[in-house]
Amino acid sequence: MIEQQKTISKEVSISGIGLHTGTQCTMTFKPAPDNYGIRFVRVDLGGNPEIPANVDYVVDISRGTTLGLGDARVYTVEHVLSAVYGLKIDNLIIELDGIEPPVGDGSAMPYVEKLLEAGIIEQDTPKDYLVIDKTVMYHDEENKIDIVALPLDDYRITIMVDYENPALGSQHTGLFDLEKEYVTEFAPARTFCFLSEVESLADQGLIKGGNIDNAVVIVDHEINNDDLKRLKKKLNLNHDLTIINGFLDKNQLRFKNEPVRHKLLDMIGDLALIGVPIKAQILAARPGHKANVEFAKKIRQLYQQKKLVKKFQFVKKEGIVFDINAIQRILPHRYPFLLVDKIIHLEMDKKVVGIKNVTINEPFFNGHFPGQPVMPGVLIVEALAQVSGILLLNTFTDPENHLVYFMSINNAKFRKPVSPGDQLTLEADLVNIKGGKYFSLKGAAFVDGNLVAEAEFMAAMVPKEDKLQQY
């Protein structure tokens, strides 16, 4: 069944103070057209800068997820985005007259209620789902964090946390039906932190908008009445603090496992930064904003690569990223100087692998050498350069309007001759980027798994209408 994109039917607003900045802000949700996506708009800044809600614009993850573009920032977006994604909204304008959304009660429920009040409507364009068709993994050995996305024609998340604290212990939860479970089972779960974190954050001048009404505080160390009085003053509270069942004050849990449910809420918000709804089974152990964002980057890169392949490769072929027809749509080279037949592996920003079938019909064999045909080493290097060009053009710019000029070739070595009947496997790895348009790469050519040639390249990305000397 084809699902249509969704937006809201009318604009609605919510006001309050931000969790960390303590600044007043009014946030207004507005309908957006098809394929607009989710964008935050700072209406209090000159020019009303727009910040797309995708992981490319994440600028800080120290205490929540912060988006930025130029000098414009929006702090702590995860709860808002969780509500938007949880309600399966695809296109939305989120205007703010401040730097941080209102914290509400520390959950996503205030935003959910406002969006439901606005009404959710279908649009004319089908949703652009990213279907995860291979396992994607993130592992942080130091912090014992693991996140995995497995192929599934649905959206499910299972999370486990273990903070080795008696008041919290090990907890796990799972969301198996976004439409049926999110609003009632996860949106009300409030943010939580340990008492030691509260003291540290307050000392750093953070959580200026935090109080006992918008966070669950877990007591993780001994504290006496004098300490509670000092904390009351530090947090500018007007009532005395108490400790009940390992939690600060009388703020009872909404769910027995409310902390881990909030972790799942956060993860939905952070993964919304992929910029497209996904179909996958997500398994996560001890996730946090940093890990969530790094994982979202991996998934978004996969999405961009799939879009890229679809743009040039019209017919899907097993084991092939780009066939020769796609390559000719990408590279300007033609006979007799097109020296790559297919691309079999592509990792955007990282690596490309291509194939060149060497036959006796190659025109250079007429003179190199008569009676003993050997592929010229300079043409093997050229083949590596062409494969590298595919990686650069499709990773960073629009190939229709740019060319790759190679500026230098270093440390070129030729290990074995290449003859008719050989199949060259051409590998190129991106090593470094300077100024967004100068690139260092390392290439290697193999025949039957044996290294036959290698070289290092420097290249520049040049608009077609410009001349190289301008760079």
Automatic annotation (TrEMBL):
<dbReference type="InterPro" id="IPR015870">
    <property type="entry name" value="UDP-acyl_N-AcGlcN_deAcase_N"/>
</dbReference>
<dbReference type="GO" id="GO:0016020">
    <property type="term" value="C:membrane"/>
</dbReference>
<feature type="active site" description="Proton donor">
    <location>
        <position position="289"/>
    </location>
</feature>
<protein>
    <recommendedName>
        <fullName>Multifunctional fusion protein</fullName>
        <ecNumber>4.2.1.59</ecNumber>
        <ecNumber>3.5.1.108</ecNumber>
    </recommendedName>
</protein>
<keyword id="KW-0441">Lipid A biosynthesis</keyword>
<keyword id="KW-0456">Lyase</keyword>
<dbReference type="GO" id="GO:0006633">
    <property type="term" value="P:fatty acid biosynthetic process"/>
</dbReference>
<keyword id="KW-0862">Zinc</keyword>
<dbReference type="GO" id="GO:0005737">
    <property type="term" value="C:cytoplasm"/>
</dbReference>
<keyword id="KW-0443">Lipid metabolism</keyword>
<comment type="function">
    <text>Catalyzes the hydrolysis of UDP-3-O-myristoyl-N-acetylglucosamine to form UDP-3-O-myristoylglucosamine and acetate, the committed step in lipid A biosynthesis.</text>
</comment>
<comment type="similarity">
    <text>Belongs to the thioester dehydratase family. FabZ subfamily.</text>
</comment>
<feature type="binding site">
    <location>
        <position position="266"/>
    </location>
    <ligand>
        <name>Zn(2+)</name>
    </ligand>
</feature>
<keyword id="KW-0378">Hydrolase</keyword>
<keyword id="KW-0479">Metal-binding</keyword>
<dbReference type="InterPro" id="IPR013114">
    <property type="entry name" value="FabA_FabZ"/>
</dbReference>
<feature type="binding site">
    <location>
        <position position="79"/>
    </location>
    <ligand>
        <name>Zn(2+)</name>
    </ligand>
</feature>
<dbReference type="GO" id="GO:0103117">
    <property type="term" value="F:UDP-3-O-acyl-N-acetylglucosamine deacetylase activity"/>
</dbReference>
<dbReference type="InterPro" id="IPR029069">
    <property type="entry name" value="HotDog_dom_sf"/>
</dbReference>
<dbReference type="GO" id="GO:0009245">
    <property type="term" value="P:lipid A biosynthetic process"/>
</dbReference>
<comment type="similarity">
    <text>Belongs to the LpxC family.</text>
</comment>
<comment type="function">
    <text>Involved in unsaturated fatty acids biosynthesis. Catalyzes the dehydration of short chain beta-hydroxyacyl-ACPs and long chain saturated and unsaturated beta-hydroxyacyl-ACPs.</text>
</comment>
<dbReference type="InterPro" id="IPR020568">
    <property type="entry name" value="Ribosomal_Su5_D2-typ_SF"/>
</dbReference>
<feature type="active site">
    <location>
        <position position="368"/>
    </location>
</feature>
<keyword id="KW-0963">Cytoplasm</keyword>
<dbReference type="Pfam" id="PF03331">
    <property type="entry name" value="LpxC"/>
</dbReference>
<dbReference type="InterPro" id="IPR011334">
    <property type="entry name" value="UDP-acyl_GlcNac_deAcase_C"/>
</dbReference>
<comment type="pathway">
    <text>Glycolipid biosynthesis; lipid IV(A) biosynthesis; lipid IV(A) from (3R)-3-hydroxytetradecanoyl-[acyl-carrier-protein] and UDP-N-acetyl-alpha-D-glucosamine: step 2/6.</text>
</comment>
<dbReference type="InterPro" id="IPR004463">
    <property type="entry name" value="UDP-acyl_GlcNac_deAcase"/>
</dbReference>
<dbReference type="Pfam" id="PF07977">
    <property type="entry name" value="FabA"/>
</dbReference>
<dbReference type="GO" id="GO:0046872">
    <property type="term" value="F:metal ion binding"/>
</dbReference>
<dbReference type="GO" id="GO:0019171">
    <property type="term" value="F:(3R)-hydroxyacyl-[acyl-carrier-protein] dehydratase activity"/>
</dbReference>
<feature type="binding site">
    <location>
        <position position="262"/>
    </location>
    <ligand>
        <name>Zn(2+)</name>
    </ligand>
</feature>
<dbReference type="InterPro" id="IPR010084">
    <property type="entry name" value="FabZ"/>
</dbReference>
<keyword id="KW-0444">Lipid biosynthesis</keyword>
